[in-house]
């Protein structure tokens, strides 16, 4: 996600902020920028990464500066949409992390009052709103504007003629760092830690005014005391939010990711091409392909829309006869096979829809319409939170197509994810860590969850793992079952419970160590399994999500027990831009 960093103190403000922005790099970004305040206000911003050399900040003189790393949500990544954003007079500069949910209304009103907008961002409205009330006192102006903003924000603002930085927070982290002769404000502690360990974490509604030698915090206009903490963490600890690996952090991000994906989609108009789709072909790779297989079940079962799912790498050379909407699903939006498959679909005059995490990525530029996952940057090579965000997008689509059929799940499924995160998987990990082969099995929509579980296990732990539709095991793989070959089986209530239970008994008869994910009070499964993992809300869609989380955690902890390089598994890349 975006990151903000501000500094007020000595004369090297712009270069300190530029270095701080590099520390925020781990959050992922597509553009960056700085505003510095000396005698006048100077801005430099650019699409792309911060270059090692060649980004000239010599013109950015002053002892106060604010900076931003942007991860596009409103408007494609380009120089204009990069922060800071200015008002009409060029005297007020703002950087922002979060989403101003009512920005479209505010922008229209501001335009009617004569304001000129340069960018497509939600953030720019803040600069123009401050412009309307600014009379030389920036904290007063920011306080006057905040009640109009709906949504989340960590804002830093500068104004020509006012030698202070004003920082404001609502539902988006903002930390103040207190140095000996300088003050800092940032989206997290990372860029501050090398300067000072004295920190104050702002609370929602707080507005902090940073003058060269003092900080004043107010809430609702009244001064408040916020406790100062002395942070002992290392820079590396902070980058991962205290988690040892990005993969674990991203797994734990998932309740919020699910809710945020749903919230963002509910604010959007559904592209007409999906409403009119009589028949759907879905192309994707890797984890996104597994998510697409779940989507097929949802589309066919709940919406009666015939859907076909193809690995994009196969589709490219063996395209099926195409008819109807073609959907490409990709976290990165850059996967070469998925991009080519969509190009082919376009060449055959099929309408195309992209479901993507990264705004402005190649796939979104190609497709006729795009829907975004809003999962934030995924750093771990093994995809986790993007899978859950993809499921959120699919559920939302089904919900809209079927007039609210999934409203309950959309509102409550994050709770199932939260419960799954609390499970103790130690016995299951003990069962897996010494294995050389593991099978993952499920039926119906849980079959792709089993595929994804096996993929997570092999890419992070390097243990050979296979996902199967449970009924297929006896058509060959049974030859491999032995006391050395654990099976992870998902056995949930419903039509296939009986047949799944029989499959599990057949495996048990081969001496296979059994890890069963089942309904909490399923006595039979508790007795037959070597390790029983109770699935929160096993019966519903929430069961799909909690099973997913358990699979991710099982892979993660097994890989960790084996000392693997979890975030960067050997031979793998996060974005596969070659065929
Ligand atoms: C597809 C994918 C990921 C996998 C790895 C390589 O990416 O296979 O699922 O975890 O990162 O690429 P995408 O098209 O969803 O970006």
First and last CA, distance:
28 Å
Counting DSSP E segments of at least 2 residues, the number of strands comes to 25
Unreliably modeled segments: none
Estimate the global geometry from the Cα principal axes. Answer: globular
Helical proportion, percent range: 25-40%
Q: What value does the Rg take, in angstroms?
A: 26 Å
Output the CATH topology of the largest domain.
Answer: Rossmann fold
Strand content: 15-25%
Strand order of the largest sheet: 3-2-4-1-10-9-11-15
Q: What would the average pLDDT be, to the nearest integer?
A: 93
CATH homologous superfamily caption of the largest domain: Glucose-6-phosphate isomerase like protein, domain 1
Provide the list of bound ligands, each named once.
1-O-phosphono-beta-D-fructopyranose
How would a crystallographer describe the biggest sheet? 8 strands, antiparallel
Structure description:
- The chain is α/β, with parallel strands linked by helices and 579 residues long.
- It has two domains: 3-234, Glutamine Phosphoribosylpyrophosphate, subunit 1, domain 1 (4-Layer Sandwich), CATH 3.60.20; 240-561, 3-Layer(aba) Sandwich (Rossmann fold).
- Helices cover 35% and strands 24% of the residues.
- The chain has 19 helices and 25 strands.
- The chain has an eight-stranded antiparallel sheet, covered by helices on one side.
- Helix 9 runs parallel beside helix 13 and helix 14 packs parallel to helix 19.
- The mean pLDDT is 93.
- Bound molecules: 1-O-phosphono-beta-D-fructopyranose.
- 1-O-phosphono-beta-D-fructopyranose binds next to helix 9.
């Amino acid at each position: 996600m975006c990151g903000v960093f501000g500094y007020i103190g000595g004369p090297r403000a712009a270069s300190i902020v530029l270095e701080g922005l590099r520390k925020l790099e781990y959050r992922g970004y597509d553009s960056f920028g700085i505003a510095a305040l000396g005698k006048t206000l100077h801005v430099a911003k650019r699409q792309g990464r911060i270059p090692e050399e060649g980004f000239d900040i010599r013109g950015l003189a002053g002892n106060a500066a604010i900076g931003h790393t942007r991860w596009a949500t409103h408007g494609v990544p380009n120089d204009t949409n990069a922060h800071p954003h200015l008002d009409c007079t060029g005297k007020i500069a703002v950087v922002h992390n979060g989403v101003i949910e009512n920005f479209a209304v505010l922008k229209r009103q501001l335009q009617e009052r004569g304001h000129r907008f340069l960018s497509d961002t939600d953030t720019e409205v803040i600069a123009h709103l401050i412009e309307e009330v600014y009379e030389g006192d920036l904290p007063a102006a920011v306080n006057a504007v905040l009640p109009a903003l709906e949504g989340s924000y960590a804002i830093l603002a500068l104004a020509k003629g006012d030698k202070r930085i004003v920082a404001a927070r609502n539902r988006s982290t903002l930390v103040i760092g207190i140095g000996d002769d300088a003050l800092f404000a940032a989206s997290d502690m990372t860029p501050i830690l090398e300067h000072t360990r004295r920190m104050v974490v702002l609370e929602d509604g707080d507005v902090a005014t940073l003058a060269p030698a003092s900080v004043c915090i107010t809430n609702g206009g009244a001064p408040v005391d916020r406790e100062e903490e002395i942070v002992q963490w290392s820079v590396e600890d902070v980058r991962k939010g205290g988690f040892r690996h990005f993969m674990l952090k991203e797994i734990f991000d998932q309740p919020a990711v699910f809710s945020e994906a749903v919230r963002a989609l509910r604010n959007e108009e559904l592209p007409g091409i999906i409403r009119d789709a009589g028949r759907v072909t879905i192309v994707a790779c890797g984890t996104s392909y597994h998510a697409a297989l779940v989507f097929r079940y949802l589309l066919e079962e709940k919406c009666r829309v015939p859907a076909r799912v193809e690995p994009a790498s196969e589709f490219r050379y063996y395209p099926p006869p195409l008819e109807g909407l073609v959907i490409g699903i990709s976290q990165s939006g850059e996967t070469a096979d998925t991009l080519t498959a969509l190009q082919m679909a376009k060449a055959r005059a099929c309408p195309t829809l992209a479901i993507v995490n990264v705004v402005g990525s190649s796939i979104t530029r190609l497709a006729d319409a795009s829907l975004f996952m809003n999962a934030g940057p995924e750093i771990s090579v093994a995809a986790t939170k993007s899978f859950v965000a993809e499921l959120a997008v699919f559920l939302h689509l089904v919900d809209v197509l079927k007039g609210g059929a999934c409203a309950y799940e959309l509102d409550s499924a994050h709770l199932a994810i939260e419960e799954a995160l609390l499970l103790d998987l130690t016995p299951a990990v003990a069962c897996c860590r010494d294995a050389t082969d593991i099978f993952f099995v499920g039926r119906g929509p849980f079959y792709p969850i089993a595929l994804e579980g096996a993929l997570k296990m092999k890419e992070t732990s390097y243990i050979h793992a296979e996902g199967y539709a449970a009924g297929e095991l006896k058509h060959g793989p049974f030859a491999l079952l032995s006391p050395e070959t654990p099976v992870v089986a998902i056995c949930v209530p419903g039509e296939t419970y009986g047949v799944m239970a029989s499959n599990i008994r057949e495996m048990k008869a081969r001496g296979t160590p059994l890890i069963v994910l089942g309904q909490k009070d399923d006595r039979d499964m508790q007795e037959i399994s070597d390790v029983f993992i109770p699935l929160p809300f096993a019966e519903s869609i929430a069961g799909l999500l909690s099973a997913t989380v358990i699979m991710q955690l099982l892979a993660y902890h097994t890989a960790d027990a084996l000392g693997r390089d979890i975030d960067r598994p050997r031979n793998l890349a996060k974005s596969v831009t070659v065929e």
